[in-house]
Amino acid sequence: MQHTASRRRLSTGTPGKVCPQEAGITPGRVPPQEGDGTTGPASTQETDGTPGRAPTQEADGTTEPASTQETDGGSGRASPQEAGGTTGRSILHLDQDSFFVSVERLRNSALAGRPVIIGGTGDRAVVASCSYEARHYGVHSAMPMKLARQLCPDATCIRGDMERYSRYSNLVTSIIADRAPLFEKASIDEHYVDITGMDRFFGCSKWAAGLRQFIIRESGLPISMGLSVNKCISKMAAGEAKPNGQLEVAGTGVQPFLDPLSIAKIPMVGAKTYNRLRHMGIATIRTLRSIPPEVFEHMLGKNGREIWWRANGVDNSPVQPWSQQKSISAETTFESDTINMAHIGDTLLRLCEQLCFRLRKQQQLTGCVSVKIRYANFDTHSLRQGIPYTAFDHVLMPACKELFRRLHQRRMRIRLVGIQFSRLVQGAPQLSLFEDKPEMIQLYQAMDRMRRKYGTKAVRRALAETGRDRQYGT
Ligand SMILES: [Mg+2]
């Protein structure tokens, strides 16, 4: 275990924002390529002066308060989160700034400081990510590319490359995995780390700042960081620290931090909810929490009360360990053991189709596919492969088919086939597709609508009748 974090120049105990210059962005190393049958993120080398792996947490639950630092404006008033017993935690949120754009800038430094828009290049494609310079013109994610180009004609438009972004995403995950006791990958560019109890060894702020700097140095990518007593506040703190900054909100500083913020900053408040609340005259978190929670519950159901709690700085959701993060799987045992390859192939693709639909329904992307074969004698084999993050059948079906081809070695009847998608992260599927084929997205949306309405088997891909001419994944 390395205890070098305390020697680092970073964060000498003063909470607050770190200026972007401090980060000293330099092109980092190129992330490793995904190899065949990868079993996890590539490991990174330890270097001197990097934050060492944190000690694993003790189970006695007698952790110290989240942070010993007072922030300005701490009112001393007991807040619900203090009453609710969540003050013992230290949760770090790491969020990369305009991630896709930053990766493109590593490749082409001429893009620095310029408005950049990433997405499909066709007129009907959507914006997947844009630089802060482009945002000043009103461009934002999920906007049609055509409109974005009209708003910001000087922007450099780049067709995204999900494979490259996935490699950098996995590089950052591997750096965190090497050092953090407990972390969750929330999306392709966001991680939560539970560093509760760390202050007894290093000091949470120093360790977290050290980790952030190490990620910046190794990846060359800007990243913002929030450190606070729960996931919601640390995410909001990282949002306020952007771009490329860090912000710590100690337990006593939570309410002073939240109160002046717009209700739009609460992660659960989407555009629709925001508009409804604004119509009630609620603009800031301070106003929202002064209203009894029953009002919001009546108006928005269970979410309404949850939003009220968040406004009061309460969020008990745990950091979900990456190793246990959800995967989804499906398998079929054949009625009788078979060597009918056409039938086996069809079954595999149906399973893939079902899982892809579930991914999109849950607004998730997968970064790893695994295929399983059980032979008639119950010998079971599986093979997995890291892939660029996606939720689309036409990407995942060929991957499943190829894994099956490599895995299927024996001339024995097959009893069962199965597929698993793992390394799931949150993310809108259309943002992982950079083709000039909006029709493809529209087709998926139409098919998924029908499945939601009439059941998962309502729509299926037409597969050729003969195995020989079969076209997979088209
Ligand atoms: Mg981000």
Annotate the secondary structure layout.
Blueprint: H1 20-23, H2 80-83, E1 91-96, H3 99-107, E2 116-119, E3 127-130, H4 132-135, H5 145-151, E4 156-159, H6 162-179, E5 183-187, E6 190-194, H7 204-219, E7 223-228, H8 231-241, E8 246-248, H9 254-258, H10 271-279, H11 285-290, H12 293-300, H13 302-311, E9 328-338, H14 341-361, E10 364-375, E11 380-390, H15 393-407, E12 414-422, E13 425-426, H16 438-454
Parallel strand pairs: 2-4, 7-8
Antiparallel strand pairs: 1-6, 1-7, 2-3, 5-6, 9-12, 10-11, 10-12, 10-13
Bound molecules: magnesium ion.
Magnesium ion (MG) binds at residues 95-96, 99, 189-190.
How would you sum up this structure, described in words?
By secondary structure, this protein is α+β, with helices and mostly antiparallel strands. Among the domains are: 101-162, MutS, DNA mismatch repair protein, domain I, CATH 3.40.1170.60; 263-311, DNA polymerase, domain 1 (Orthogonal Bundle), CATH 1.10.150; 326-454, Dna Ligase, domain 1, CATH 3.30.1490.100. Helices cover 35% and strands 17% of the residues. It has 16 helices and 13 strands. The strands form three sheets. A five-stranded mixed β-sheet has the order 5-6-1-7-8. α6 (162-179) packs antiparallel against α7 (204-219) and α14 crosses α15. It is globular and about 70 Å long. The N and C termini lie far apart (50 Å). Residues 1-27, 34-52, 54-86 and 464-474 have low confidence and may be disordered. It binds magnesium ion (MG). Magnesium ion (MG) is lined by residues 95-96, 99, 189-190.
Q: Strand order, main sheet: write it out.
A: 5-6-1-7-8
Uncertain ranges: 1-27, 34-52, 54-86, 464-474
What is the CATH-assigned architecture of the domain at 326-454?
2-Layer Sandwich
Please compute the radius of gyration using only Cα atoms: 24 Å
Which small molecules are bound?
magnesium ion
Strand tally? 13
Query: What string gives the helices and strands in order?
Result: HHEHEEHHEHEEHEHEHHHHHEHEEHEEH
